[in-house]
Design brief:
The chain is built from 23 helices and 23 strands. The protein is α+β, with helices and mostly antiparallel strands. The N and C termini lie far apart (120 Å).
């Protein structure tokens, strides 16, 4: 028998009861504190939020501003279309997640059911296009090409199409005036993403989930101006969703218009001539391989020399920016981004990098003079130049004897620049460089603005490359392990090159400097950089930031913000040197390597200056370059794997100038046929109601005059 009384409690039981009492008391205290916090301290805040649960808002999209050319002709504007959209939220409430609804919708719209379903799925890292990259709560456009009959079917059968709307909506239109495309310059629109909304939260232009934002080109660069501000109307609703009153309303503000310096007529001519030049190049044979040139891509820039304003900018291959309107199809997306697409979304004028070849020679010419060499020389233009058993040949092994630097530019004599670069390399210490080497040829390239962006008002510009000593060291550090792993002393060419780079890749070797002096080797430039440089030589030495935007005009036309030209520096040359180079480049067009392309040009009335370039690329065919300027414009064209500068790009550049100045094949000038008889000076006329009075577009003028090919292809 136990000695403990039946009514007694052990100490352990007592402890447990006390613990339970404490826990219960703590829970009650916590609950009471939480109720006090919610009802007393933050009561007003939660009352307001609860009230807002009965407020619904309707967003009224702002009309996006237009993008206009210099004469007021719309390049991108808006048109009203019947847009069919799907509410993903409503579809998810259906038993089958809306699959049957989308199938019926596809049948009405005469589309494939799979294509319609793909458009409403949400994008993520594993979901290919087409998919929806915007907010899942925003109506997702299925098509902007619905007919009135299709829209009526959807509206009359609402029970069959829950969550589907068909409404007239302002839709972006890329008008292609005069047949111009300008896709890479204009860009396109895409749905706003959560990341973009978050990024814009604390800016002057916050984003709504219903917004479309600019992607690439001017649409992106001036998005905050073009987008305007959406209107919002807030309604009070009861528990059944019925409207019982209006709380507030904010009217939408249309976006501003962007006036550009582009001329749609010149743009059309530039695009046409670039495309034709590439087609013509593909008919020619590469003498080194016996195969036809591929001419797989190219670009051309037409710029005002005195302001840096871009008159035309073409990139090939191109695409139709209207493909993005209303949501891009999977087929079109693959065409634009697939591995076989050749990437038409790239703007090769500012994103295409290539060795410049002989159009680069204005830089080593300036460097040589700045380093103390005489412009007049004479310098030996031999057929070849030997360094340590390695022979560097002149183009077609030509020899011109003792000549000046000016004449070296005219005939594009490589060996003159080889010798100058080699001599300067030795003065800097050769393989054992001095503590502070002069590096004139490299420093001068930086002073010309290479290896950095020009500052153009377009996104995603690249900077190119000047392979100076610092770049050599950085490049070697990044690649030495791979070189040392794959290099072989007696292997293939690439294996031997890797072996050599493994041991001495950090050094500035003689061959590096010699190749660099004629725009070869590791040097990379963009067409825009070279157009800026040649424009600066034309205008007396000012390096302008290239600009496409010319003015921002408010919707009512009362406020005009002009975009003034800006300079980012001066060419590193004295006036005398500029005049000497200017005279030499005129000689290129009259008696040098470009003379056969400018036969019959009215040189006495419109002095033409030019430089041809043919850049060799390992594993590919040569890159064609043609750089030119007059007192008004600089025009630079390049064609990848297109052959020689004068052979491939020369005829097209000549035709662009024919159209600009109204020059016929015999050298006559008809100012009435000139596309731009004088550089742009004023904005298009703006009416009292804010509309812009566009000049008639008409059809592109016939290209007058055609130069006949005479002689062999030259640099």
């Amino acid at each position: 028998m136990s000695n403990i009384p039946e009514t007694g409690r052990t100490p352990r039981v007592t402890v447990r009861l006390v613990a339970i009492q404490i826990i219960v008391f703590s829970l009650l205290l916590t609950l009471g504190g939480r109720l006090w916090y919610l009802q007393i301290r933050n009561g007003d805040e939660y009352t307001e939020k609860a009230a807002n649960n009965h407020v619904q808002q309707v967003v009224h999209p702002a009309v996006r501003g237009s993008i206009l050319d210099a004469r007021g002709v719309p390049l991108a504007d808006n048109e009203t279309r019947l847009v069919v959209s799907a509410s993903r939220t409503a579809l998810m409430k259906e038993p089958d997640d809306g699959e049957a609804v989308l199938t019926r919708l596809a049948d009405v719209l005469h589309l494939k059911a799979k294509d319609v379903k793909d458009k409403v799925r949400l994008c993520d890292a594993e979901t290919p296009q087409p998919c929806w990259n915007g907010s899942p709560y925003q109506p997702i456009p299925i098509t902007d090409e619905a007919s009135a009959k299709q829209a009526l079917q959807i509206r009359e059968r609402e029970e069959d199409f829950p969550g589907i709307s068909a409404e007239p909506t302002a839709v972006r239109r890329y008008a292609a005036p005069a047949g111009s495309n300008a896709a890479q310059v204009l860009g396109y629109l895409s749905p706003v993403t959560d990341e973009q909304i978050k990024k814009a939260e604390h800016t002057k232009s916050p984003l709504l989930r219903s917004d479309q934002v600019g992607s690439n080109g001017l649409e992106n660069e001036y998005d905050s101006k073009l987008r305007g501000k959406a209107g919002v109307t807030r309604y009070e609703v009861d528990n059944l969703g019925r409207v019982i009153g209006q709380r507030e309303s904010q009217r939408a503000r249309p976006g501003d218009n962007v006036v550009t310096s582009l001329d749609s007529r010149v743009q059309a001519v530039a695009e046409k001539e670039l495309d034709q030049a590439m087609k013509d190049a593909r008919k020619q044979y590469d003498r080194n391989t016996g195969t036809k040139y591929k001419a797989d891509s190219g670009s051309v820039v037409v710029m005002e020399a005195k302001t840096g304003r871009v008159v035309a900018m073409a990139s090939n291959p191109a695409y139709d920016p209207n493909a993005w309107v209303g949501g891009i199809s999977g087929k079109d997306y693959k065409k634009l981004t697939g591995k076989d697409s050749n990437y038409p979304l790239l703007n090769r004028a500012i994103q295409g990098q290539a060795a410049p070849g002989s159009i680069f020679k204005v830089i080593p010419t300036t460097a040589a003079v700045n380093a103390g060499y005489s412009f007049d020389g004479p310098y030996t233009c031999s057929s070849s130049f030997n360094i340590g058993g390695q022979v560097f040949k002149n183009f077609e092994s030509e020899s011109h004897g003792g000549i000046s630097l000016g004449r070296a530019l005219e005939v594009s004599c490589d060996t003159v620049f080889y010798r100058l670069a080699y001599e300067q390399w030795k003065k800097d210490g050769g393989n054992k460089p001095k503590k502070n080497p002069g590096d004139w040829f490299y420093k001068t390239a930086h002073q010309f603005g290479l290896a950095k962006k020009t500052g153009i008002d377009l996104p995603n510009e690249v900077s190119g490359r000047v392979p100076d000593r610092q770049w050599k060291k950085d490049f070697w550090k990044a690649n030495k392990d791979a070189w040392c792993k794959t290099g072989k002393k007696n292997g293939s060419y690439t294996e031997r090159l890797s072996y050599e780079n493994c041991l001495e890749g950090m050094k500035m070797r003689a061959g590096d400097s010699v190749n660099y002096s004629i725009g070869q080797g590791d040097t990379l430039v963009t067409p825009m950089q070279m157009a800026t440089i040649y424009g600066a030589i034309s205008n007396g030495g000012t390096l302008y930031d290239p600009t496409v935007g010319k003015a921002i005009v408010s919707p009512d036309g009362k406020h005009i913000q002009e975009i003034e030209p800006k300079s980012h520096g001066k060419l590193p040359m004295k006036g005398q040197t500029r005049d000497q180079i200017d005279q030499a480049l005129a000689g290129v067009a009259t008696r040098g390597t470009a003379a056969w392309r400018f036969q019959g040009w009215p040189q006495d009335k419109i002095p033409m200056h030019a430089k041809t370039g043919t850049a060799e690329v390992y594993g590919k065919q040569t890159t064609s370059w043609f750089a030119t300027y007059t007192k008004d414009y600089s025009v630079v064209m390049t064609i990848s794997q297109g052959g020689t500068g004068s052979g491939a790009s020369g005829p097209a550049v000549r035709k662009i100038y024919n159209a600009l100045y109204g020059v016929d094949g015999k050298g006559g000038i008809d100012k009435k046929k000139a596309l731009l008889p004088a550089p742009q000076a004023n904005l298009p006329k703006i009416s009292s109601d804010g509309s812009i009075e566009a000049q008639p577009v008409g059809k592109p003028l016939a290209l007058l005059g055609d130069t006949k090919r005479r002689g062999g292809a030259r640099r």
